[in-house]
Design a protein that fits this description.
- The protein is an all-alpha fold.
- It has 6 helices and no strands.
- The protein has a domain at 71-146.
Length: 151
């Protein structure tokens, strides 16, 4: 089979046309932000009667109702964060401070953890964290009372 010069030129021209159409479809100069803004404008420009309801349903699917925290839940999150901060302070004080200061910090952690245990925790993840903190507290009290940190 012979390839004639005309046939070779036709194939090259066809490949060039295909690559030109692909490059037109995918503009390299368009940034992601511009593309995103364009899609958002398109979505907002299409009015629908149920768009408010649809957006509300989507928001509920993305952010579950139990994570839309009430004032009390925010307090619980802050208490857990405070207990974790005290644990950090405790671990640093074991190497730098006296055992008396370490014991005082451990007692603060115990009071805060007991408050968290008596609080009605609605988030199962926070509940798991509080249980782990209680276990850690118990182990640390045993180690402290046993004298593991005496020098």
């Amino acid at each position: 089979m012979k390839i004639l010069p005309n046939e070779a030129n036709i194939n090259v021209v066809k490949k060039d046309k295909v690559s030109q159409t692909k490059s037109q479809n995918f503009k390299k100069d368009v940034s992601f932000k511009d593309l995103l803004d364009e899609k958002i404008k398109e979505a907002n420009s299409k009015p629908s009667a149920s768009s408010g309801i649809a957006k509300e349903k989507i928001a509920q699917e993305i952010i579950p109702i139990n994570l839309l925290s009430s004032y009390e839940e925010k307090d619980v999150y802050q208490m857990v964060e405070g207990v974790l901060s005290k644990w950090e302070r405790y671990s640093l004080s074991l190497h730098r401070s006296s055992l008396k200061e370490c014991f005082d910090i451990l007692q603060e952690i115990k009071r805060d953890t007991e408050k968290l245990l008596t609080t009605d925790l609605k988030d199962p993840h926070i509940e798991d964290i509080v249980k782990e903190l209680n276990i850690l507290l118990t182990v640390e009290e045993v180690k402290f009372n046993r004298g593991d940190y005496l020098e």
